[in-house]
Write a structure and sequence with these properties.
single chain, eight-stranded mixed β-sheet, 18 helices
Length: 598
C-alpha cells in the first residue's frame, strides 16, 4: 500500500483540528477550506486503506461535492457506471440458480429531473485518493501518522507514531472524524445508544476476474442463498475484472478469526459462491469486524463535535453511513464559518446536533430494517421453510404497492443479529451444498413457493432505492416511518433541500442548487419583486439572485408554485442549500436572520 503524501511539520496552532483523514475528515477539511477556515487533518495511519469499505455515493453527497467545485466527472470515471453496476442479484451461486434481481438505486436518466448528480459506485480508496488530491491542491494541511491522545484548554496532545514523540497543537474547535471507535468520543465519555447488539462479520477482499462467469449478470451487489454462508452474505463488486469484497456473517465454517483464513480456506468459501474452482485469483485481505447499529447520545461537547462514524454506525445495508457523514460535515462547516465571521452567536452551533442526530436515527433504523428483511429472506430460503416469509409478506402485503414497511421506527436487535457470537463447526460439505441447490431449484419451479419468494424480493426494493432518505429529509421535521424510502417528492417547505430544476445562466445549463453561494444565505426573488434592496449590513451574508434576470428556469411555473415564490415573496435559502424561510419585506428578512442566528 502506498504511503500518503502529507506535511512533515505539525503546526502548533489552527482554527479547527480534524481527527481522521478518511473520506469524512477530508470532506470536512475541504468544506472549511472553501470558507477560509484554516484546519489541520490528523490521520493515524501512514498508509491508505487497502480493502474497499464504502462504495455507494448518493446524489446528495455528489451535490455537496459539486458545491465544493470538485471535479465530479473525474470521480465518476474512477467508479462504475450503471451498465456494470445497475442491478442487485439474488443467487444460489454466481453462475447458478437465480432467485431474482432489482435495480440498484436511481441511475436512469429520469432521475435527472430530481437531482443534477445521480447515484453511482466508487471504491472507497479511489474516493479517498480523489479527495486527498484535491485537499493537497487547495492547501489543506494533512498530517499522517499522528494519533490524537487528549485535549485540555483547547490544546490537543498528539503522538507521531513513527517516532513515539508527543506534540501539542492548539485549536479553537476539534472535530472527530475518527470512526466508530473514536478516541475523541471516548475521551468525552459520550456513549453510543446501541439500537441492536453487534454482529460478528468477516470481509474477504479478492481480485478475481468474474466478467465471463457473470455474463449478463452484471451488477454492484450479489446476495447469496447458499449453505456455505450464514444468513447474510453479499459480494460487492467494484470492478468486474479485478476488485470484489465478500461480506459474510460469521457462523458455521466462518469463525470470527482472521488468522484462521488461509488463501485455501478463504477461496473455498468464495469459490462455492462463484460456482467454480477454475478461476485464478488472490485473496488480498481478510478482516473481522462488528456490524453495529449505534447513534451517539450527543454530537457536541462545548467546542468539540462528532461527525460521520464517530457519531453513528449503521449496517452496510442501504449504503447510508458514508453519505450521512458527508451531510454531517456539510451542516457543520458553514455554521462554524458563520460563527467565526461574527454573524451568529456560538450557541448557534447547537443546531448541528439538533438537526443531524435525528437524521442518523432515521437512517440507522432503515439500515437495520433492510438488514432484517434480507436476513429473513435468506434464512427462509436456506431452511426450505417459507412459513416465516409468508407471514412477513402477509403483514407487509401492501409494501410493494404503497411502500408501507413494518416497524422501521423501532429496531429489535434480536431480529437483526440473532446470535452475537459466531457458531463453531466445519463448513458444509459439497454434498450438503448440492442437496441445497436441488431444494432451491424445486422452490423456484413450484408456483406457490415461487410467488412467495417473488413477493419477498419486492419487499427488498426500498433497500436499494432510498432517494427520499437521500434528498427528502427536512430539518426540524420527523420523518413519517410508514413512507417508502423511494417516494421522494420535491418540497418547498422550510427545512427541505432546495428543489432541483434546470436553469440557464448565459450559455451554461446548471441547477437551482448552483445558485446557492457557499458560506452565504441566498435570497431568490422574481424580476418584478416588490421587496426592497438588501440592507448594507446583510450584503456580506446574503446573496440576492433574480429569477428572469440572473437566471431563467426551464420549468418556471412549476418551480415557482412549488416554492411559493412570487413578486411579493422571496425564498431565503441557507448556505447548505436547505430552505430557511419565505420573506415578504426587508424587515422580515432582517428579523428572520436575527432570530435564526442568535
Amino acid at each position: 500500500m502506498p504511503s500518503f503524501e502529507s506535511v512533515t511539520n505539525l503546526p502548533s496552532e489552527c482554527s479547527v483540528l480534524i481527527c481522521g483523514g478518511g473520506p469524512i475528515g477530508l470532506t470536512q477539511a475541504l468544506l472549511l477550506n472553501q470558507l477560509n477556515i484554516d484546519c489541520v487533518v490528523l490521520e493515524k495511519y501512514p498508509t491508505r486503506l487497502g480493502a474497499p469499505k464504502a462504495h455507494a455515493v448518493n446524489p446528495r453527497t455528489i451535490e455537496i461535492f459539486r458545491q465544493l467545485k470538485l471535479d465530479t466527472e473525474r470521480l465518476r470515471r474512477l467508479g462504475t457506471g450503471r451498465d456494470e453496476a445497475g442491478l442487485v442479484w439474488f443467487l444460489n451461486t454466481l453462475n447458478g440458480t437465480r432467485l431474482g434481481s432489482l435495480p440498484y438505486e436511481r441511475q436512469d436518466d429520469a432521475v435527472l429531473e430530481l437531482t443534477p448528480e445521480p447515484f453511482f459506485n466508487v471504491a472507497q480508496p479511489e474516493l479517498e485518493d480523489w479527495l486527498r488530491t484535491e485537499a493537497r491542491r487547495r492547501g489543506v494541511q494533512l498530517c499522517d501518522g499522528y494519533e490524537w491522545l487528549s485535549r485540555s484548554d483547547g490544546v490537543s496532545t498528539v503522538r507521531e507514531r513513527k517516532t513515539k514523540q508527543d506534540h501539542q497543537i492548539k485549536s479553537k474547535y476539534l472535530i472527530a472524524c475518527d470512526g466508530s471507535r473514536s478516541n475523541v468520543r471516548s475521551s468525552l465519555d459520550i456513549p453510543f445508544d446501541e439500537k441492536a447488539p453487534p454482529a460478528e462479520m468477516m470481509t474477504f477482499h479478492f481480485n478475481a476476474d468474474i466478467t465471463k462467469l457473470a455474463g449478463h449478470r452484471r451488477g454492484a451487489l450479489y446476495f447469496f442463498f447458499n449453505p456455505i454462508v450464514k444468513d447474510y452474505a453479499v459480494i460487492v463488486t467494484h470492478q468486474l475484472a479485478s476488485n470484489h469484497v465478500l461480506v459474510a456473517k460469521c457462523g458455521r465454517g466462518i469463525p470470527f478469526d482472521e488468522s484462521y483464513f488461509t488463501q485455501e480456506r478463504s477461496k473455498s468459501i468464495i469459490n462455492r459462491l462463484l460456482g467454480t474452482k477454475d478461476l485464478q485469483y488472490d485473496v488480498l485481505a481478510t478482516k473481522a469486524w462488528y456490524m453495529s447499529v449505534n447513534v451517539a447520545r450527543t454530537y457536541q461537547a462545548d467546542d468539540t463535535f462528532l461527525v460521520g462514524d464517530a457519531a453513528h454506525a449503521f449496517p452496510p445495508t442501504g449504503g447510508l453511513g458514508l453519505n450521512t457523514g458527508v451531510a454531517d460535515a456539510h451542516n457543520l462547516a458553514w455554521k462554524i464559518a458563520t460563527v467565526e465571521g461574527g454573524f451568529a452567536e456560538p450557541s448557534f452551533l447547537k443546531t448541528y446536533d439538533a438537526e443531524r442526530r435525528p437524521i442518523a436515527h432515521t437512517n440507522a433504523d432503515q439500515s437495520a430494517h433492510n438488514r432484517r428483511q434480507i436476513g429473513l429472506l435468506q434464512d427462509a430460503v436456506k431452511a426450505h421453510d417459507l412459513g416465516p416469509l409468508l407471514e412477513e409478506t402477509k403483514a407487509n402485503g401492501s409494501t410493494a404497492q404503497n411502500g408501507a414497511s413494518s416497524n422501521k421506527s423501532h429496531v429489535d436487535g434480536s431480529d437483526i443479529n440473532k446470535t452475537k457470537q459466531s457458531q463453531s463447526g466445519p463448513s458444509p460439505s459439497e454434498e450438503e451444498c448440492d442437496s441445497f441447490t436441488d431444494q432451491i431449484n424445486k422452490l423456484m419451479v413450484e408456483p406457490d413457493s415461487r410467488a412467495i419468494i417473488d413477493h419477498a424480493l419486492e419487499l427488498q426494493r426500498e433497500h436499494f432505492d432510498s432517494l427520499d432518505l437521500q434528498l427528502g429529509y427536512v430539518y426540524g421535521k420527523q420523518r413519517d416511518t410508514s413512507r417508502n424510502c423511494a417516494d421522494y417528492v420535491p418540497s418547498g417547505e422550510v427545512g427541505a433541500r432546495l428543489p432541483h430544476a434546470i436553469i440557464d445562466i448565459g450559455a451554461s445549463e446548471l441547477s437551482t442548487l448552483d445558485l446557492v453561494t457557499p458560506g452565504r444565505f441566498t435570497l431568490v426573488v422574481t424580476k418584478d419583486t416588490v421587496l426592497g434592496n438588501t440592507p448594507p449590513e446583510l450584503v456580506k451574508s446574503v446573496n440576492r439572485v433574480i429569477l428572469g434576470s440572473d437566471f431563467t428556469l426551464r420549468n418556471q411555473a412549476f418551480w415557482q408554485t412549488l416554492n411559493k415564490l412570487d413578486r411579493s415573496v422571496g425564498l431565503l435559502v441557507r448556505p447548505d442549500q436547505h430552505i430557511l424561510a419565505r420573506v415578504s419585506s426587508v424587515e422580515d428578512l432582517q428579523g428572520v436572520l436575527k432570530a435564526y442566528l442568535q
